[in-house]
């Protein structure tokens, strides 16, 4: 991967993306890790294997994994309305009372991605009707998971993922040990993003981790570990096609289905390629994970720049060959 090494070195040196943490699998085995650039405006030291990045929505597949475990154990019924498990979440909205964990994980809840301009939270279509990327629903799923397990989400993640998989630089909440080596985000024109210190786990976006830690989770997933065979297979069944357009959120259903990209229980899917993926977008941070279940090739990277997704056009062909309709669906521009 000499070309990839050179590309990442040149990209971070240019300043467009201050720092990158990237790890890859080849045939299910760790094949490469790359660390380039600096941690941010707050710390000009180099990114290394222990530099903690905001993983943003790469949190969601990890939460889905825990939800499936709770389902296996008879604690969480994925088809039972969340309203019946832990009470009301969207006041005065009768449609919301139909929302299940299944709807949340497949992004068919009818709830918006984020609530903008102080608009009241509400459903925009009947749950299960179609796909519209909806991060806001994950807070309700979190509440249900915590209720049935009598554990906080951070405790669940620590007990079921971080500790068993040796993810020593990962948490859903800010840890003081991260203060000595963490990345700071950067927006499009280079302005630094003030650091957020999340004290309470957020199921849709609060994961703090490293590429080395997260590729360990992906390796665990590809090896079919941690779940019974039936649950594992159900994880990757295409449940609903995404929608074409400039935004994964499609609340009014104006865009036609994208027949090349679907959603499973917490993962985006490329059914014709046998691949799963997810992307992450926090202010000043971007992330992507993509893996091929047949070849067991995979890549994950974190970048402390709003331009970080744009690495995809060079990185993915080097690590996970083949056509990837998710890249077109996500409308990722070039550096």
From TrEMBL:
Pfam families: Beta-lactamase. Residues 5-308 form the Beta-lactamase-related domain. It comes from the Bacteria. InterPro entries: Beta-lactam-related, Beta-lactam/transpept-like, Diverse_Enzym_Activities. This is Beta-lactamase-related domain-containing protein. It comes from Paraburkholderia hiiakae. The lineage of its organism: Bacteria, Pseudomonadati, Pseudomonadota, Betaproteobacteria, Burkholderiales.
């Amino acid at each position: 991967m000499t070309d990839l090494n050179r590309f990442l070195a040149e990209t971070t040196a240019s300043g467009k993306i201050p720092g990158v943490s990237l790890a890859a699998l080849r045939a299910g085995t760790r094949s490469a890790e790359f660390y380039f650039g600096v941690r941010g405006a707050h710390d000009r030291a180099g990114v290394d294997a222990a530099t903690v990045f905001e993983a943003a929505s790469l949190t969601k597949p990890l939460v889905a994994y825990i939800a499936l475990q709770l389902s296996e154990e008879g604690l969480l019924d994925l088809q039972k309305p969340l309203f019946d498990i832990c009470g009301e979440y969207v006041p005065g909205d009768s449609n919301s009372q139909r929302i299940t964990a299944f709807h949340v994980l497949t992004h068919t809840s009818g709830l918006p991605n984020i609530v903008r301009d102080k608009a009241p939270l509400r459903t925009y279509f009947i749950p299960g009707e179609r796909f519209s990327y909806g991060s806001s629903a994950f807070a309700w799923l979190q509440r249900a998971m915590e209720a049935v397990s009598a554990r906080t989400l951070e405790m669940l993640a620590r007990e079921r993922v971080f500790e068993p998989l040796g993810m020593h630089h990962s948490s859903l909440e800010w840890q003081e040990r991260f203060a000595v080596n963490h990345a700071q985000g950067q927006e499009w024109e280079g302005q630094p993003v003030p650091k957020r210190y999340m004290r309470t786990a957020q199921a849709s976006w609060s994961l703090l981790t490293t590429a080395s830690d997260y590729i360990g989770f992906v390796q665990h997933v590809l090896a079919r570990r941690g779940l019974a065979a039936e649950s594992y297979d159900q994880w990757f069944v295409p449940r609903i096609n995404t929608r074409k357009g400039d935004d994964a959120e499609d609340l009014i259903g104006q865009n036609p289905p994208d027949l090349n990209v679907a959603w499973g229980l917490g993962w985006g899917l490329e059914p014709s390629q046998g691949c799963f993926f997810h992307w992450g977008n926090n202010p000043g941070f971007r992330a992507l994970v993509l893996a091929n279940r047949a070849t067991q090739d995979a890549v994950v990277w974190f970048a402390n720049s709003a331009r970080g997704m744009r690495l995809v056009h060079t990185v993915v062909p080097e690590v996970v060959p083949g056509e990837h309709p998710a890249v077109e669906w996500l409308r990722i521009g070039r550096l």
